[in-house]
Amino acid sequence: MTAVAPPRPLFTWLAPPVPWRYLVFSVAASALLLVMGFNSQWVPWDDGLTSLSGTGWSDLAASVSMYLWAVAPALALWRPAVGGTVAAMPFLITLGDSAKTWPLVLFVSLLACAVTATWRSRRAAVVLAGAAMVPVATYAAGRTTIVTGYGFEVERGAASLPNLAFQLLLYALVAAAAVGLGAWMRASYLASQSASALAGRAEAVERESAVVGERARLARDLHDVVAHHVSLIAVRAETAPYTVTDLSPGAAALLSEIADDSRRALDELRGVLGILGRSTVGAELAPQPGATDIAALVEAARRGGDDVVCVPTDLSGVAAAPGYVAYRVVQEALTNARRHAPGATIRLDVTAVGGGVLVRVDNELVDDALAADGLVVDGNGLAGMRERVEALGGTLSVSSGEGRLRVEASIPAEAP
Asked: Which domain holds residue 384?
């Protein structure tokens, strides 16, 4: 199943980033405002009654106003107050004009700012829509004139009260529609993000479910195959002294040790099965080995034929978590040495450091090529050792050279 990525916003330097739909609307609104502005018949200070009439400043002011109205919606994406101020500026600076006119494009620019401002703040959008109604209110009061452009005549403020009320209502509905459009754009974008996030979480749950199912299947396979054969080994080792009458005492003792090791292997296998299949079968709780159990582990390795040199030390002060990891490190190191250097001397040094523990394992390598090609140093067992040690904030170093393999693990009492 392919992950559904959320809509990628543009201009991430804007905080929060602006979605595509707002940018497209801003560009479209700017183009419309430019067309309306250049086709508008509004020219400030050009009524023949001001000192700027006929000086060329009125045409320049009209041109600058058109561009200000066009960029105002884009500025409102960044700061709604800035966009609204820029849009209203041409009208504000001409309040002293004796004609007191304002163009319809001003109303449209403020409404476009209200739409884009909804991305930042819906309250700011309502304020901008209200600001767009101010010139309309002055027109309704008969104090200003609306310039519509496109060859249409200038609308005068003198009109009947019902007509003015109808026009005010019409403009108010347009302003409310602009705010509603902006709110819908924002809500639809957030809904698409939420849907994408839900799709991502559903995919993660599906992957986790697949992993849990696979672990449960693996647990069943281990239980049905491996555990069965290990249990057979234990049973045959225990019953051998009774079924074979000519066994020597040494052979009977060896078979008894094999049976004990098989039972311990079964206990550990059941613990692993409980972890793997915990989604379907509850694991039985059992005490975990600790640092004080390392001595028994070493003794079992010696009984199995390994030449382990270890100086007994007091490990009773080692905490439970580092003691468990140290036990597993020693267990894996002994297994690794038994596999790759059978019969070689294994030197083990386990020292308590505060509540933590320091483990050093050094053994000869029967075949130097094993270390050279990385089979020993980069094995899966050592990778598991490293994960256990580093999970507690410790360090694990594995090195080989001069025909020897050295493993050193420092496990603190508490993870940093």
From this structure: 291-411
